[in-house]
Amino acid sequence: MDPPQPPAAAAAATTTAAATTSGSTALLNHLISVDTTLSEYLHSTLKPFLPHFLLLLLELSADFRLFFPISLSLLLAPNSSTSLFLLRRPFLSSLLLGLLLDLVLIALIKLLFRRSRPVYNKNMIAAVSVDHYSFPSGHASRVFFVASIAHLFADDEANLLNLVVWLWAVLTSLSRVFLGRHFVFDVFAGASLGVLEALFAFRFLRFYL
Q: Which terms are listed as keywords in the entry (predicted)?
């Protein structure tokens, strides 16, 4: 057992720990402030010049309740002999397992951080219902997972299709900020998570199909 610290040393250690905690909190608050300011600026500056129906269409295209049933239907359809990798069973199986993994992880992280959505999102009529928490963006994680897993499965003949999927992922993620659904850091975190999920699904899940 370590000998007890003198009162002066204990007080100094407590002060140092408090200063470290205070510094970390101040840095986090500064980052949140920058994120909030930047997100509101992008929303208020760019949204008036963008077609609202297109932003809502991008939002709907990445909704889990639409995306998952379509992917499941394609998996169950008799298309095993197709040459298009997007319709092959290994890709679709990995896609579905990854989407379920993403759904669970996003829900857990949102419950952990409980960051509220932007206040300027309150009076907007969404194309689909949304939950109350903002960090991380589920749409961003989902589309970047899809783009990443498609990139990993794609062959040389699917370069153009691969590019279209990546473009869809980027535009959908940006639309989350433009619509006021999320902050910039939410989208960045969601996109990063989606890439990691794709690497995991490609490395581990496809061998058990």
A: Membrane, Transmembrane, Transmembrane helix
- For 24-49, the pLDDT digits (tens) are 788 888 889 999 999 999 999 998 89
Alpha helices in 49-137 (DSSP H): 52-61, 64-76, 89-113
Q: Is 52 labeled as catalytic in the residue annotation? A: no
In the residue annotation, 139 being an active-site residue is answered as yes
Tens of pLDDT, residue by residue over 56-110, are 899 988 888 887 888 888 878 776 566 676 777 788 888 999 999 999 999 999 9
> Which residue among 30, 43, 132, 182 is the active-site one?
182
Kindly report the pTM of this predicted structure.
0.82
The structural domains of the chain, with segments of one domain joined by +, span 7-208
Which of 30, 43, 139, 151 is the catalytic position? 139
Q: Which residue has the tokens 């961003």?
A: 140
